[in-house]
Amino acid sequence: MSTAQAVGISDRFFMRQSGKKPYGKIWVMLHVSNISKQFGAHQVLDDISLSVPDGSICALIGPNGSGKTTLTKIIAGLLQPTAGTVTIAGADIVRDPVTAKAQLGYIPDNPEAWGKMTGRELLHFVGALYGMTPAARAQRIEELLPIFALTDIADRDFEQYSRGNRQKFSILTALLHEPKLLLIDEPIVGLDPESVSILEQLLVDFAAKGGSVLITTHTLLVAEHIADRVGILAHGSLLAADTVDVVRAQAEKGPDASLSQVYHTIVGQSVAETAQSDQS
Amino acid sequence: MLTFLLQFQGRKITRLFAARSAGQLITSLLFVGLFVGLAVGFCWLLIAGLESVQVNEFLRIALPYFLYELFLLVLFGLVGVSALISGAFALFRQSSDMWFMASPRFQSVLVSKALQVGVFSLWPLVVIALPLLVAMQVVYDIGVWGMVIGMLAVVSMGVLTSVAALVWLLCLGYLSVAASRRMPRGDAFGIFLSSVVLTIVVAGLLVWLPLRDFDLYSLFAVRDFSITEAPTTYIASQFQYYLSHLAATAFYAVQTGAMVVAWQAVGWLVALAVGVTVLYSFLGRGFLHIWQLLQESHFVAASNSETKRPVSNQFSRIHSTWGALVRREILVFFRTPRDVFWLGFLLLLWLVITSFDVFLVENVARSSAAAESASQWIQAAQFLVITYFAAAIALRFAFPSFSIERDHVWVLLSSPMSLQRLFAAKALVYVGGIVALTLVVTMIHLWILPSTGVNAGWFVCFGLIASATVALVGLGIGARFPNFASDDPQQMSTSVPGLVFMLIVIGYSSLSAYALFSLLTTQNLLFAGAFAVGSLIMVWLVYTLVVQRLQQVEFVPITHS
After folding, report:
1. pLDDT for the residue numbered B475
2. The domain containing residue B167 runs over which residues?
3. What is the chain B residue with the closest CA to A63?
4. Are both A11 and A147 inside the same structural domain?
5. What is this model's ipTM?
6. Does B332 touch chain A (CB under 8 A)?
């Protein structure tokens, strides 16, 4: 429950103040509405709609080539949708990108940055892009670096870092300006087991404080550990998107069924339906 | 593997021209139309130039020959140095080669680099040579075989120069690895890069020193009143030690109809090209070994490495997004050795050509009657040099500056910052930098070849406005047509949009040089006005066609996942 609901402020007043939209009885940080994306003649995403409420972690899972990265790039404002809208805290990512992006922390699937900048310089640079003052940046960087024990290597060139350390710095860039929404494309690639645990806890704490998280991943175990909502994407279509319990019910599985079983059932049904429609 | 690489390049070209929609087809056709139009314009200029020389009985043979020698020497000098710099990084520091080098067919990297540096990047040369050969056909009637010989000369000279540069890089690679073993903390790649820089400096001096002492009066035997036509023997003797002399000989022989001599010169070029290719193949046998050693660098997988920069205060006083973008652009540029080498090389060349003024001053001073008009000619010519180098620097740095953001563009585009602001920051850095360099060079020129106050003022104004316009157009075209197919800025520069940019520059700078010359000789302000309006139109076009539409450009490589 958000602060606004707790103190009983009306929907209309809260929407005016925060720019967010109500979704049922929950406040929605991210609202993806009827998003489609075509690259030339190739339809990568087809009419995708989903929402991530405040304090929620939503895991978007799907096979390779299903459109997960394209969707996250559209939400992050890196690609333009062919149709549909994305709003972050009520701000449209296409019409009002500056307001929308100010609420967002994005961690890409490939955490590359300028090789000749140090990790600390990268963090300062990103902080400046988000309008943080030099003092606020310096203080926040000193708070963040110890999370993944990066203080000792913060003044080395980015090109010298291993894949895992690059990933850790990209996580810190997303957390630097204290966003309301974290958008993470494959969060644990290259991370050691200790860092995976730290990241999982970090995301759970972030959501507990009212933040929203959308992660796309192939690692179902991570999704199962931390996500309270799940979306299953295949061939550019969203096959399911709701709380984990509702999606389990959609797959006709019991409460003890693993996310892997749910995923394979729903994707399997989709493949069978596609084959059937192709035959007919 | 060679077949595969050739087929791959062929498919790339096919894909480029495979239009998928009516809009793309129209855009492609407009692009081709613009390209053809500019090439025709360039050809027309060449025809006019050659015809004006043709009417001078005394110089009609010797002057074109001198220009072939000089032009081809400078052109292939540029090709050679370009191959040295891009080849140094392409051979030993291209991350995409890891797959090749880990496979049993790692030797194929050598073939790939020879194609990349020595063949596929030479196509702009062919595009420049074609209008020249057409112009020669119109003026001298050189025939089909003359055009074939001319094209063969350009292509074989280009291959020879590029592959010879790769051979030299392999030699330097072997020497650097050997030297690093004898030094206690020897960094093989550092030694390698230093030796490449030394090579460029020495090669530059070898070309520049003899040219500096040229005496045009002796070269064309102007004082010999017994002859009615300037001889070519003095010119040939001055250039005979340069490899480009063979190509110039072929062009000259084609012009005069001496086809046997032309075939002989081309034969030599082809034989030499084959020779260096065999040598390249021979030296490449130990490529894997030196490649491995030249990869070694500082790498931090754990947090206990010893090498680090001092705690940076580069961004600690930056308050605004704007300031951060500008600082980042400058910081990354000056920390990237390849970019600094390129800028250093282009600047060196620019200063060398500007200091040709010294040689011109001596030749002009001998004829006081012609001194004033010659000085105006030289200023117009130096203005062309300024726009050329401003364009070359813009093409190498400003043009690919959006495309090279490929892998880290997520940092910029996911932040609350508009693309217009990014464009403005890049414009400030690149346009400002190029204008500052232009100011220095124009001052050097005026110091060597003083001019009257008003004329000097016009020269500086024209130079600054033209270099700013050219830099902005280069940045704009690069932003409108980003290229994510390569991470090599040199390769991006030789793309179709890069060539269109250079053709636009040729048209703009030719008209501007004419306006400057007319202004200097007649003091008619109409020419200054036309130049200012033309420049403003180009800036307005960049603003309306690029800056206002930046939000529609997707600066992210497409992934279907």
Report:
1. 95
2. 36-296
3. B561
4. no
5. 0.84
6. yes
